[in-house]
Amino acid sequence: MKDLLEGYKRVIEFDNGYGLSIVSHGFSYGGKHGLFEIALLKNGDMIYDSDLGFSDVIGNLDFAQVAEIIDRISKVVK
């Protein structure tokens, strides 16, 4: 089970108060296939409803899709 939890885990925080949790491991959506799962954060807490198009975690994302979301969230005005 420990092997399934090992993988990529990172939290990115932006100056606008938003952040992203980005993971890829055996229990994340897409992790077994080398894909990523992200969750939107606000002031360090996961948020489930926002005007940014996020209502829950989003899984099965490739690197380019994650990079696009990072770019979009980083440009949100505080």
Please describe what this structure looks like.
The protein has helices at 2-5, 63-74; strands spanning 8-13, 18-24, 36-42, 45-46, 58-61. It is of the alpha+beta class. It has one domain (2-74). Strands 1, 2, 3, 4 and 5 form a five-stranded antiparallel sheet that branches. Strand 1 and strand 2 form a beta hairpin. The chain starts with a helix and ends with a helix.
Quick structural overview:
It contains two helices and five strands. It is an alpha+beta fold. Strands 1, 2, 3, 4 and 5 form a five-stranded antiparallel β-sheet that branches.
Task: Give me some keywords for this one.
single chain; 78 residues; alpha+beta; 5-stranded antiparallel beta sheet; 2 helices; 5 strands; 33% strand; elongated
Produce the secondary structure layout.
Layout: H1 2-5, E1 8-13, E2 18-24, E3 36-42, E4 45-46, E5 58-61, H2 63-74
Counted beta strands: 5
Task: Characterize the biggest β-sheet.
Answer: 5 strands, antiparallel
Would you list the SSEs in sequence order as H and E?
HEEEEEH
Q: Helix proportion of residues, in percent? A: 10-25%
Number of helices: 2
